[in-house]
Structures are given as C-alpha cells and as structure tokens.
Specification:
With 52 residues, the protein is mostly helical. It is built from one helix and no strands.
Length: 52
C-alpha cells in the first residue's frame, strides 16, 4: 500500500475510533437527572380517542 493509502487508513480509522469513544463517554457519564427531559406520554383512554 502506498504512503497516501496508509495516511488515509490511519486518519479514517482513527476518526471513527475517537468518535465512538467520545460517544460512549458522553452516554455513560450523563447525570441521572437527565431523564427529566424525556417526553412523558399519557395513555389514551377509549373515551378520549376522538378528542385528540
């Protein structure tokens, strides 16, 4: 493989590896209070289906 091919390979694999590690760290270090921001969906009762 040429020198340009090795550089391309190292840069692309390195970028994907760094992105993967960064996303894992971001997900695993998220504070437990963050579930307050998740959407809360109320169950729909049979008599309320026409109101929505």
């Amino acid at each position: 493989m040429t020198t340009g091919g090795w550089i391309n390979l190292i840069l692309s694999v390195g970028f994907v590896t760094v992105l993967f590690v960064w996303s894992l760290i971001r997900v695993l270090r998220e504070p437990p209070e963050s579930d307050k921001h998740l959407a809360h969906v109320e169950p729909i009762e049979e008599d309320q289906t026409e109101q929505r």
